[in-house]
Structure formats: C-alpha cells, structure tokens
Amino acid sequence: MKNQFVKKLSAVSSAAVMAAALLAGCGSSSQTAASTAPAAASTEAAAQTASTEAAAQTASTGAAADTASSTAAAASSAAAVSGEVTAAGSSALLPLAQAAAESFMKENPDCVITVNGGGSGEGLKQVADGSVDIGDSDVFAEEKLDADAAAKLVDHEVCTITMAPVVNASLDIDSLTTDQLISIFTGKTTNWKDVGGPDEDIVLVTRPSSSGTRALFKQYALNGEEEASNESLETDDSGTLLQTIEQNEGAIGYVALSYLVNNTDVKAVGIDGVAPTLENTYNGTYKVWGYEHMYTNGEGSDAAQAFINYISGDAFADQLEGMGYGVASKMSDEAKKAHDAQ
C-alpha cells in the first residue's frame, strides 16, 4: 500500500512539471511559469513527506507487533507450570487450598494438584517425612514437630484465619465473655442458663490434640487453658463438627470463619461483645485469629512454589477474602501487636 501511494504522488508530480514546461514553450508569461514551478516543487515535497511518514508508520507497526509477540511469549512461558503437587493438613485451610488448586489447574492444565485435610499435625508430619509436597498448618511447625524436623521445613504464610465459637442456630446466645467461654470449654459450666441462655445442657463438640485449630483456639480464645475432651463428639473435620452442632440444640464448638460464609444452619458467637468478622480481625478488636502456613521440605519443587505464590498473590486476594480468609498485609499494627503479645 505504501509503494502504490508513493508511486501515485510521484506521477502527479511528473505531470505537473510537464504541464509547466509546455506552458512555458507555448509562449506563456514568465509569471505563469514561475508560479507553476513552486507548485510542482511543493507536490514533490509532499510525496517525499508521505513516503517518510509511511515508512515510519510501518516501522512503528512492526515494532508494536514485535513487542506484543514478545509479551505474549513471556506470559505463555510464565504460565507454563507442569508437574504434580500434593498437600495435606489443616482443615481450616482446606476450602481455600481446594479452590486455589482448581483455579490454578485451569490456568496450568499440565499441573495436577491434590489437596487433603487430616489436621495440621498430620500435614506437618507428612511434609517432614516426604509423603506430601506441602503441609498445611494453622500453627508454627515448632508447635507440632521436634526441633530437628521443624528446622528442615520452610514456612510460607499465605493468609490469616479467624476462628469463631459456634452454637446451634436456635440457641439464644449471641456473645460470651472470655471468662464464660473458658468456663464452658474447660467443663466447669455445663448448663446454658448459667451464662444467660435457656435451661439446656451444654454439649461440647471438641477437636483432637493434633488439631491446629484447637491449638489456635486454646491460645487466643481460652488464654492457654486446656480444653475438656468429649471423645464421643470429637472430630477435626469441620463439616462434621458443624453438622453435629446443627443436630444438637445445646451444642457448641468452633470453626474457621471460612466455614461460616453463607451458613445459616449454625450461629457464630461473639467474644466480649465483638463479632468474629474479617473487619474486626483486621482492626484488632477480635482476637482469635492466626496465620495460615504452607510448609515445604526445603524450598520445595518449582510447581509447589508456583502454587504457593498463586494462592498468596494479589490476583487471588479477592477470592480469598470472599471465602472468609484474611489478607495478611491488611492486618493493622494494633492487631499484630495484640496477637504477638499472647
């Protein structure tokens, strides 16, 4: 297209010059010839300018195409993750890990990620002995493993988790004081009427000692007091725990906030008048929360690292919050100071 355009302009220029020469040869005045010559020169200049601009446009278009091609190639290379990743552990982190795995595999069809629960202690044990690539945990590895085993693991804090006491939806209890909560979970208070509720026996739904959720709740909700055990209703499966509370009017337990999103079958209970929400966790007024960890044995495989970076990255942050998890960078200084002090 550029060459045809330049050829047409050149032809117009030649015709103009020939017309000027003919007019001069036929006795036209010198004034007419003089006025025609600048017009011809102007036309030639226009042709040269058009040729230069067309060349520049072509060069610019070619550079843009090269840049777009390079960007697309880089993006394709960055997204090309392959291999297999196995993860196990925290039941609190399980919904997020499963959702992130599904999303990650859609973007990386040559990568297979398998995520299971089992509790933080089990996840840490399995990543330490090499059974899985990633051990999901609500607590630091040092709290569940001996020093030598924990020292070999690399901690990746992917988000924060808020834990909430939960009761049967029909129970007329909206908030408990810290002292009341401790008395209930240590087995000292056994009837709801003693804490402002109905004349109904309290049924504890507890978690096993290997549970990271139990360890976190003990530290930040019970001020380190040891929780009473109810072996007949003990589970580290949060779904089973919620179902048990739903089926027992006097039941109480605790789960991660992520299990309460759009759940109307049970009721979350505030502590000291503060509701367990992300906003209250971020601003430091709600105290029962912790960091969620993904541990690798050493730095882990490239695929495991890519998955961990994905789940904790900015692109996944909105989905993470929508599921009830907290973005670690949003924790206020007040929240972090209060948390570290306990």
**What does the average pLDDT come to?**
82
Q: What is the CATH architecture assignment of the largest domain?
A: 3-Layer(aba) Sandwich
Main β-sheet description: 8 strands, mixed
| CATH homologous superfamily (4th level) name of the largest domain | Periplasmic binding protein-like II
State the shape: globular
* Helix-residue proportion: 40-55%
Provide the succession of SSEs. HHEHEHEHEEHEHHEEEHEHHH
Q: What's the CATH topology label of the largest domain?
A: D-Maltodextrin-Binding Protein, domain 2
Q: Tell me the count of domains.
A: 3
Number of DSSP-assigned strands: 10
Assign the CATH class of the largest domain: Alpha Beta
- DSSP helical segment count: 12
Question: How does this structure look, described?
Answer:
The protein is an alpha/beta fold and 342 residues long. The chain has 3 domains: 61 residues; 109 residues, Periplasmic binding protein-like II (D-Maltodextrin-Binding Protein, domain 2, 3-Layer(aba) Sandwich); 123 residues, D-Maltodextrin-Binding Protein, domain 2 (3-Layer(aba) Sandwich), CATH 3.40.190.10. 47% of the residues lie in helices and 17% in strands. It contains 12 helices and 10 strands. The strands form 2 sheets. Strands 1, 2, 3, 4, 6, 7, 8 and 10 form an 8-stranded mixed β-sheet that branches. It has a two-stranded parallel ribbon with strand order 5-9. Helix 3 links the parallel strand 1 and strand 2. Helix 1 packs antiparallel against helix 2. The longest helix is centred in the first third of the chain and has 50 residues. The N terminus is likely disordered.
